[in-house]
Please model this.
Amino acid sequence: MNRRIVIAGGSGFIGSALAAEWRAQGGEVVVLTRSPSQRSDRIREVLWDGRQSGEWIEVLDGAEAIINLAGKNVKCRHTPENVQALMNSRTNAIQAIAQAIEKVKAPPPVWVQAGAVGYYGNAKARICDETAPNGMDSLADICRQCEYAFNTAATPKTRKVLLRIGVVLGRNGGALPILARMTRLFLGGSAGNGKQYVSWIHIKDLARMFQEAVSRPELSGTYNAVGPNPATNRELMRELRRTLHRPWSPPAPAWAVKMSARMMKIEPSLALDGCRVVPKRFAEAGFQFQFPELGGALRDILA
Ligand SMILES: NC(=O)c1ccc[n+]([C@@H]2O[C@H](COP(=O)([O-])OP(=O)(O)OC[C@H]3O[C@@H](n4cnc5c(N)ncnc54)[C@H](OP(=O)(O)O)[C@@H]3O)[C@@H](O)[C@H]2O)c1
Model:
């Protein structure tokens, strides 16, 4: 049986975790990257430009799956130029993969695409399952356009699964290392009014969702890739302080969050907005979470 998976944009935070997991199970991993390097972990990196097909498409021929994580990181100011770059980096990669699937003799039987819960916008406390409406802000618009590009790609021999990923908690990337550093410095108060929801997921559960999306032929379409218990920002920061043995810290008012976001060149809405997303379709598919509770997830990662 062929056990090769190809991960586009697999050099980053989520891709590294997926690649390590797949390798640990004896599978072959090929990462599509714009700057390949020689690695010592037996993961092959192959050059692509994230925009059009090229020699790289041959690694898709006969692969077990293509996973696409490519896209400019959202941790930047959402200026019109950056919003365009966030959008183009994703839709171009989707189109390049769609073309490659069309060209190869034995296309991969499944394509798993990274989306984001940003699709729902700043939905506040409203519970969002996969049928909840698209939000109104620029990230929600980017998510919608990416999903459109993915859903309309004609791949008759390739099953498609889109994961709307929440805030991924892990040691090597995403928001948690920054929040943990601030908490250790006694700056672990909530942001703004602290009521915004953080739809988090432990990176190990997310990696298993990707694996199930690949291995279970009955999974198809759009799934929320979040844990079963979204927390408010206030709850998240309280649990972080508890995990790191830090006392109560005063909340950072919205103006202070905006000011420090400006200094860190990131968009304040990433900290001040949120949505309360539930993994309805994964629950229906019988997915078992290893880390359903925030405290357990944080202790596993930070202990
Ligand atoms: N981390 C989270 O909490 C989270 C939450 C929701 C959704 N997601 C989505 O999941 C995906 C993976 O997330 P991640 O945290 O692993 O991100 P990441 O660490 O930033 O990795 C993304 C990869 O995309 C590639 N990339 C960057 N700009 C690109 C461009 N202009 N064209 C083509 N490729 C480009 C980079 O690979 P090379 O430089 O090697 O080419 C990079 O390693 C992203 O689409 C992200 O939006 C992540």
Summary: Residues 9, 11-15, 33-35, 50, 69-74, 89, 93, 114, 116, 165, 167-168, 173-174 surround NAP (CB under 6 Å). Residues 80-103 form the longest helix (24 residues).
